[in-house]
Every structure is written in C-alpha cells, then in structure tokens.
Specification:
With 102 residues, the protein is of the alpha+beta class. The chain has a domain of 35 residues. A two-stranded antiparallel ribbon has the order 1-2. The chain is flat, with a radius of gyration of 19 Å.
Length: 102
C-alpha cells in the first residue's frame, strides 16, 4: 500500500474539499479502505395517501444500513449493538427491529 502514490491535492480537488478528514494516525488509503464503517442508506418515510403527501406524524420509517467489519468484529455482535443503541435512544416511541440480509 505504501508503494501506491497518493496525491493529496488531486484527491481534495476531485472531492471538492479544502482539508482531509479522519483519524490522522492512519494513512489516507487506510482511512478509505481499511477502517470500519457504518452507513445509513435509502431512508424512507412519509404518508402516501390518496391525496399524496401530507404533514402528519409518521407511524413508521425505514432505512437500510451497511457496515464494514475489520478483524475481531462479528457481524451479529455489531448488529446487536446497533439495535440496542437505537432502542435506548429513541425515546421509547417505537422499537427498532432489523432483518439481516447476509
């Protein structure tokens, strides 16, 4: 990985940023490819009645998540921690449930 040239200015220009972000003890390549991630993708919610959209309080919402694991991380353990965190912090309005696609 150290043999691969990393052009910091070029990368920042492509991304349209003025400073790099992330944990500086890791190289840019490590931050991009070898660190754990958690991404929320495809959030959905809303009211879809006969008249279309409305400004009512939602009865449900949905989002897909994806996460990248690294050594010594177990998918089921990470998923359990995510569920526990959401259920503790959502004000007991709703309970979070999930379905693993793996």
């Amino acid at each position: 990985m150290k043999k691969n040239h990393y052009a910091k200015a070029n990368n920042m220009g492509i991304l349209g940023i003025t400073a790099e972000d992330g944990d500086t003890i890791f190289s840019p390549w490590e931050r991009i490819w070898f660190r754990p991630t958690l991404e929320i993708i495809g959030p959905q919610s809303g009211y879809k009645g006969i008249d279309g959209l409305s400004n009512i309080i939602l009865d449900n919402s949905m989002a897909r998540i994806t996460y990248r694991l690294v050594n010594n991380q177990l998918g089921e353990e990470i998923l359990d921690m995510i569920v526990k965190h959401i259920n503790i912090n959502d004000g007991d309005i709703n309970k979070f449930c999930c379905k693993s696609l793996s």
